[in-house]
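for the writeup, i need someone to sanity check this before i put it in the appendix. the sequnce is what the collaborator sent (i think, or maybe the updated version? ugh). structure was predicted straight from it, no edits. if anything looks off just tell me and ill rerun, i have time this weekend
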Amino acid sequence: MQRFGIRFPRLFGVSSLLALRDREHSGMPQFEEAFQHFLKEELKGMAVQSLAEEEQKAVDRFRSLIEHTEKNLLRKDERLEELKLLEQQLRKLFGASIAKLLEREALQELDELLYYVNQRVFYRFNDFFKEAFNPSVFSNKSAQQALNTALQELNEMTGFDFQQELRVTNFRLAQFIEKKLDSRFKEDTSKLKEQNSDFSFTPYEVQEAGSVEISKPFVNADYSSVKSYYKNNKSFFEKNEKEKMRDALQELMEPDALRYLEQEKKN
């Protein structure tokens, strides 16, 4: 509680249920009175104290700056040489941009994330297939209508799952980059402090990543060749024709999925 400026917290035992029945003995009046006093008096005092502390910090910073400036004026030429040396050291320290390194690390992270996206979606592929190719679809349609409906449904479910996974991947990649930048900021400020303890820094604020437009996979894909695995309802659902169709579909869709992920990676 102390980090919020509350040094002596007070606890009140209250009962909202009892307050509905007997307000005076529920503890609510005492709590409300103490809470109002806190809002009107104590909170105001805490704000004043906080402002006073910030004011003192600003005064101390200005005092230190004035002292350093006065000392530097007395040894101006020597100080100029020190600053030139410091500039050379900083240019050497930060001469190389971290952009290429960060880009390489981000691409490696993205490759790994996309690999597991593909793994997770096709791990769920069997469930999508069962849901799309269920007996009820074939009970009130012709075989061709049912197959077309089931194939379309499977494409929709699998494609939607890829889109959802990529949205999460975009978020995870943004978090990865933010952590890398934060880590680099801490390293750099530490190095600069070693060079000159008077340096002050403003924390780097990473801009929130904008939403990414995720395209839909399997849009123009034609997997109608797998219909040949269907003979009739009985053999399809009671024998292993359904499993053969599922495996054939997955074999056709996996290369398309990899091409889709590679394209989204470039985008």
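The chain has a mean pLDDT of 79. Residues 143-195 form the longest helix (53 residues).
thx in advance!!
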